Amino acid sequence: MGMTRTIIKSVGGYLPERIMTNDELATMVDTSDEWITERTGIKQRHVAAEGEFTSDLALAAAKIALQRAELDASDIDLVIIGTTTPDLTFPSTACIVQAELGMTHGAAFDLQAACSGFLYGLAIADSFIISGAYKRILVIGAETLTRLMDFKDRNTCILFGDGAGAAIVEAGEGQGEMSDRGVLYSHLRSDGRYRDLLTATGGPSSTKTIGKIHMDGREVFKHGVTNISQAIFTALKETGFSCDDVDWFVPHQANGRILEGVARKVGMAREKVVVTVGQHANTSAASVPLALNDLYESGKLERDQLVLFEAMGGGFTWGSVLARW
Ligand code: ACO
């Protein structure tokens, strides 16, 4: 039976110009390139320039996605930005981007799901499109995570970086079959009991400051592998696909060892896993669309291929989206 499907029409990405290598970090905290590479797979991260905000990164990624889709802002109904590092407490970064794009119609809002922000945004956009509320949505993950980092804390400052990724999704016709193009399944989860394991230590209502990232690395690692694997198994079970049917696995780039642990647990062939963590580090909500952008730019992503997205972040929040390109 015919049904509306959410087609991923285009993707774009933007990374700030400045690159901070592990060697540079080692001049700031007691660490080394060897330690960081072995434990995380990270070699470098991008850092936003002074005066360069999350909205600037988001806007740059959005413009690329619009250009690739051969659309302009007047074609977009809604802007959703997943971010933990908004320009301001309010108004939303999405409203800033909406204005910068010259959009005087439609709606815009931010979404807070930490590293799962883009995935949550994609799932919400899918629901809006299926309901008929909106026809074409700009979903962005954008972060200036380095602004939340304590460059004296070697447990956390080695892991994160800045960047933005954007996708344009729009209504398309499907048959209600798993052979349809577009989003086929999404699964969102959270469990606030674990909120203290990965947190920023400030906020407008509590400390009136933005705080710094605090993390229990070992616990996050353990829960990360378990939760992400569970989200993947759920997506496969609910859609009837196996790992072998998936052409590309586009995961949140938390760190290389979590990616390896998950790939091993779910039985995903390494060559299907898109890995950008070495160059981007963990860019939180930007990491999934930036990885998708890398895959797109590699020229390997083909129409009708099956793509499995996953993410996990502070909250904890986590989930998966399965889509046919
Ligand atoms: N450089 C050198 N030594 C370090 C560093 C560093 N940057 N950080 C910690 N160490 C030391 C510790 O002090 C400790 O020394 P000790 O034995 O003398 O006490 C030793 O290294 C081992 O520390 P552990 O914390 O046990 O190291 P571990 O092997 O667990 O690695 C890491 C730490 C990389 C953070 C790991 O726990 C991890 O990957 N956790 C997941 C965290 C993550 O991915 N977070 C991303 C955000 S969450 C998300 O996006 C899902």
Order of helices and strands: EEHHEHEHEHEEEEEHEHHHEE
**Judging from the principal axes of the Cα atoms, what is the shape?**
globular
Strand content: 25-35%
Uncertain segments are none
Number of domains: 2
Looking across the biggest beta sheet, what order are the strands in?
Answer: 1-7-6-4-5
Structural write-up:
Helix content is 31%, strand content 27%. With 325 residues, it is of the alpha/beta class. The chain has two domains: 3-174, 3-Layer(aba) Sandwich (Peroxisomal Thiolase, Chain A, domain 1); 182-324, Thiolase/Chalcone synthase (Peroxisomal Thiolase, Chain A, domain 1, 3-Layer(aba) Sandwich). The strands form four sheets. A five-stranded mixed β-sheet has the order 1-7-6-4-5, with helices on both faces. A hairpin with a 3-residue loop joins strand 12 and strand 13 (317-324). It binds acetyl coenzyme *A (ACO).
Give the helices and strands, then pairings:
Blueprint: E1 3-14, E2 18-21, H1 22-25, H2 33-40, E3 44-47, H3 54-69, E4 78-82, H4 93-100, E5 107-111, H5 117-131, E6 136-144, E7 162-174, E8 182-190, E9 198-200, E10 213-215, H6 217-239, E11 248-251, H7 256-266, H8 277-280, H9 287-298, E12 306-313, E13 317-324
Parallel strand pairs: 4-5, 4-6, 11-12
Antiparallel strand pairs: 1-7, 2-3, 6-7, 8-13, 9-10, 12-13
The chain binds acetyl coenzyme *A (ACO).
